């Protein structure tokens, strides 16, 4: 799976002002819903919050991979948000997070979900990619960094 297949400019936001874990998940849910008629904002938020209750999706190095499964979704979509400043997200390394790469996957795609997470995590383990995302001043820059 190529990351370019699941990202888009209309689901990417740069330097969002935010100060809490819940608020960033609300922003992600809003972005997902406003750009897809098949997605309900409340349903997305509930799915993301339920996943966070099982354990933080903050993987370290200022990066979080919030994710959730949604009934009725036809394909995997990504929502990418950077925040300024970084926020407390209960990450594994206890460092604040400023890069959020959220994934929404069809409810029945368990195996595909894990493969997509692994692909994204691999891409975000590249230090140059992460530096480019942090230097981004707009959504185009973020998408270019992931290409």
UniProtKB/TrEMBL annotation:
Gene: ptsN
GO molecular function, one term: protein-N(PI)-phosphohistidine-sugar phosphotransferase activity
Protein name as it appears in the record: PTS IIA-like nitrogen-regulatory protein PtsN
Organism: Alteromonas australica
Gene3D superfamilies: Mannitol-specific EII, Chain A
Domain PTS EIIA type-2: 5-147
Entry superkingdom: Bacteria
InterPro entries from the UniProt entry: PTrfase/Anion_transptr, PTS_EIIA_type-2_dom, PTS_Nitro_regul, PTS_SugarTrans_NitroReg
A Pfam short name: PTS_EIIA_2
Biological processes annotated in GO: phosphoenolpyruvate-dependent sugar phosphotransferase system
NCBIfam families named in the record: nitro_reg_IIA
């Amino acid at each position: 799976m190529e990351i370019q297949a699941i990202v888009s400019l209309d689901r990417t936001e740069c330097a969002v002002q935010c100060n809490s874990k819940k608020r960033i998940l609300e922003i992600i849910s809003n972005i997902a819903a406003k750009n897809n008629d098949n997605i309900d904002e409340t349903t997305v938020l509930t799915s993301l919050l339920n996943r966070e209750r099982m354990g933080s999706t903050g993987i370290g190095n200022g990066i979080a991979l919030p994710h959730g499964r949604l009934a009725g979704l036809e394909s995997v979509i990504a929502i990418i948000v950077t925040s300024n400043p970084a926020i407390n997200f209960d990450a594994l390394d206890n460092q604040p997070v400023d890069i959020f790469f959220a994934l929404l996957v069809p409810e029945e795609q368990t195996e595909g979900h894990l493969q997509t997470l692994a692909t994204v995590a691999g891409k975000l383990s590249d230090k140059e990619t992460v530096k480019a995302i942090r230097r981004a001043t707009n959504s185009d820059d973020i998408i270019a960094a992931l290409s």
